[in-house]
Design a protein that fits this description.
This protein is α+β, with helices and mostly antiparallel strands and 463 residues long. It has helices at residues 51-83, 93-99, 105-110, 182-195, 201-211, 214-220, 223-234, 269-289, 334-350, 366-376, 431-436, 458-462; strands at 10-20, 23-29, 31-33, 36-37, 40-44, 120-128, 131-139, 144-153, 156-166, 169-174, 236-240, 246-249, 261-265, 293-301, 309-320, 323-328, 354-357, 383-387, 402-407, 413-417. The strands form 4 sheets. It has a 7-stranded antiparallel β-sheet. A hairpin with a 2-residue loop joins strand 8 and strand 9. Helix 1 (51-83) packs across helix 5 (201-211). The chain is globular. It starts with 9 loop residues before the first strand and ends with a helix.
Length: 463
């Protein structure tokens, strides 16, 4: 069963983190009112305030749900490589560890507050099918120690399950509506006895959904539980996984994960039409946003040894030194290429997806980024949550959409919405001016740096 076909959308209403990386206790409240969520959220803060750590919390949700399925994929890959003498050298433990999906223990450890023995907890408030719920789990350095889901339980909201480790014993509450067959419930609980902790209960259920046929799953598992899992899997996340790399996970409205190089099946007319649509969108956008770009298009390139696949590469026509020149998109500047990644995320949010994007303005001119996002905000049908340093946005952004991570002198952090302040924001006293003047916090300490004692004496080096 491919649960992606359900088309469920999950919107965040709030996120609470405790002992999570640089956060002691913090709550991000994204509710517009009791039954509505904010569609566009921009999170500000000085360098090191925890903006990327916030996005890591969303990425952890994705890993928590998919870990059990992924470990099976890795085992299958290991078996294939063991039979392939040419690639057998890939079977180092370091290589498998770098994949990060053998289990979630490494992900959990990376999300722990350093030099801390207390349990870490993450809670995700969400809205699915206009019904609000929450999913929470607590963990130590290696395993999940508690997990709970609250959502639509039959026809009323309630707890679907609670599982926790108490003194090395697994204690569980399972709603009578969660599984429709008692024998199947017993089978699931036996599975939990073996794997829960290293994997979440949601991950174990996803493993069942992926393995069993659609009719069997529909007969045995609550539709509400399946909706929650599907909703979590659909969240589109762009997260800075290291200093130089960005990871993209989650669902998509598009079949193509990469807009720069696209493979389509020759007989697949639907994929051809999707490629034509993407080409039109890219052309419309880039020719409006850049003065020197006059066309963007895909061109088919050879695929040696594969007559079932058509490969297309993205090109641009630019005016350079008075002449129109064709340039492969791969040779464009880093900023222009980053815009392609941002545009992909924007298209997801416009078409109903929840998108969480870390450092969305990375390498892109402030004015261009401002124009992109301000033009977009009223078209979002899903939810777009970004972290950014682009203060130009604040000149026009609704104060209800702007948040700042405030850090006090003891290193405690608080997520504050600009609208929470009793300050009148107007054109002559706009949010950008107030933010840069330190009214909301979340800016670097405003003082000159004394470099006078940083000179290196040559005599000292020679000694």
């Amino acid at each position: 069963m491919n649960i992606i076909d359900l088309g469920v959308r999950c919107m965040f209403t709030y996120i609470e983190l405790s002992n999570f990386k640089s956060f002691g206790n913090i709550r991000f409240d994204f509710r517009k009112n009791k039954k509505q969520y904010k569609k566009f959220i921009a999170i500000y803060g000085e360098n090191g305030s925890g903006k990327s750590n916030f996005v890591s919390a969303i990425e952890l949700l994705s890993h928590t749900v998919t870990s059990f399925v992924n470990i099976k994929h890795i085992k299958q890959l290991r078996m294939m490589l063991e039979k392939d003498e040419a690639n057998k050298e890939l079977l180092s433990e370091d290589w498998f560890k770098n994949i990060g999906f053998l289990d979630i223990s490494q992900n959990l450890k990376n999300c722990r507050m350093i030099d801390n023995n207390d349990i870490s907890t993450v809670t995700y408030g969400f809205l699915i099918d206009e019904v609000e719920g929450y999913y929470t789990f607590s963990f130590d350095d290696k395993t999940i120690v508690r997990e709970e889901l609250y959502y639509l339980n039959n026809k009323q909201r309630g707890k679907l399950f609670t599982i926790e480790n108490k003194d090395s014993n697994i204690i569980s509450y399972i709603s009578q509506y969660l599984f429709k067959d008692k024998k199947y419930e017993n089978d699931i609980m036996e599975l939990s006895e073996m794997y829960w902790g290293k994997h979440s209960f949601l991950a174990l259920i996803l493993g069942e959904i992926k393995e069993k046929n659609k009719k069997y799953i529909a007969t045995n598992i609550s539709e509400n539980l399946i909706k929650v899992i599907d909703g979590f899997m659909q969240i589109f996340i762009s997260c800075k996984s290291s200093r130089y790399q960005t990871s993209i996970t989650g669902g998509s409205n598009f079949k193509f994960r990469d807009f720069e190089n696209v493979d389509i099946k020759l007989q697949n007319e639907k994929q051809k039409k999707e490629l034509e649509l993407i080409e039109k969108i890219l052309k419309d956008f880039y020719t409006q946003a850049y003065t020197d770009i006059i066309d963007i298009y895909y061109e088919q390139v050879p695929t040696p040894g594969n007559n079932q696949i058509a490969r297309y590469k993205l090109y641009g026509k630019k005016i350079i030194a008075g002449k129109t020149r064709v340039i492969p998109f791969s040779l464009e500047s880093a900023g222009t290429q980053n815009v392609l990644s941002v545009l992909r995320a924007i298209l997801e949010a416009i078409n109903g997806q929840t998108v969480v994007y870390d450092e969305i303005d990375n390498g892109i001119h402030d004015l261009l980024m401002k124009n992109i996002l301000i033009s977009l905000k009223d078209e979002i049908t899903g939810q777009l949550i970004i972290t950014t340093h682009n203060t130009l946005l604040l000149e026009e952004l609704d104060s209800k959409s702007a948040y700042v991570i405030y850090t006090d002198f003891d290193g405690n952090k608080d997520a504050r919405c600009f609208d929470d302040y009793d300050i009148r924001i107007q054109s002559t006293n706009n949010a950008r001016k107030l933010y840069l003047n330190g009214i909301f916090g979340g800016i670097p300490y405003n003082s000159e740096i004394d470099y006078s004692k940083m000179h290196i004496e040559k005599n000292n080096l020679e000694e």
